[in-house]
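Final report, Chapter 2: Outcomes

The project's central promise was a pipeline that accepts a single protein chain and returns its three-dimensional structure in a standardized token representation, suitable for archiving and comparison. That pipeline is now operational. To close this chapter, we reproduce one record exactly as it appears in the project archive, with the input sequence first and the structure output second.
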Amino acid sequence: MNHGYQHLIPPLLDAAYKAGSRILVDWTREKTVERKADDSPKTATDDAAEAIMKAAILSISDAPIVAEEAISKGEHVTIGPDNTFWLVDALDGTREFIRGAKDFTVNAALIENGQPILGIIHAPAFGITWYAAPGTGAMRIENGETKPIALRMFNHHALAVLAGKRSAAPETLDPFIGEHQIADRGQRSSSIKFCLVAEGGWDLYARLGETYEWDTASGDAILRAAGGVVLDLNTGERLAYGKAGAGFLNTGFIAGHPALLKGPSVKAR
């Protein structure tokens, strides 16, 4: 794998914009909804957006691609010994897309040695894109303007948390942040939540239930570049990627500032 990363960003951004435009064509139209083996919904738009992203990645990289819809159809991807591969979720937030809401995204991330090092998240309905790669930091693009983003300073006694009530319950958060007071609680869909924390709008994003690696990798990369961390709720360690034997499943996690999240095994960036 070529370890120069910045040249990957322009073609990935272009592909994400094309996938986003394709998604918006169908956004307000009537949709035919299918059910995958895990009972999650999918549409023809999921497949179309994924095809755009995969074609773009294949033109710039020879690393394997683990893409949500292809995996759901039974595709087997062999990840090499260097554990370098791509994770693609070209329409994250399909339920939001189906009902005509705005919280859906186009996601792509590059994984090396089990960790996300590059990530792009495009929110076509909002016209906002976030990305991160070594040498660029975490960036936000809106109205043609690109700006760096970073976590905000937090107040232990007035935290703003993106999570459902169960995910933000004391028994979930206490092992990581100790005594705390949640002053604001919000709920959003898709990988946008990682970006809202990364750009300083919220302090924490907590999730109890299972997710897939393609749901988290891009946001994880962006949050890390903004100074944050995503920890496994069970182990207190950073989420690991490349768990092919486990179907690329993640357990619950919590995301935020490493000085706030006092997990037992938080490692330096």
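Archive annotation: The radius of gyration is 17 Å.
This record, like all others produced under the grant, will remain available to the consortium after the project formally closes.
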